[in-house]
Design a protein that fits this description.
The chain has 45 residues and is an all-alpha fold. The chain is built from one helix and no strands.
Amino acid sequence: QAIEEEDAPRAQALLRASLVVEGGLAIVILGLVAWLGTLSPPMSM
C-alpha cells in the first residue's frame, strides 16, 4: 500500500521491519534445529 501511494520512506521502513522480523525468525529456527540436532534419539525397542 505504501508503494502504491508512492510513500518511499514508509515503504523502506516497512521493508526494513519485515527483514528484521524474517531474519530474527530465521535465527530462531536455525537455533532450534541446531539444538534438536544435539539431542540423542529416543530408545526404541
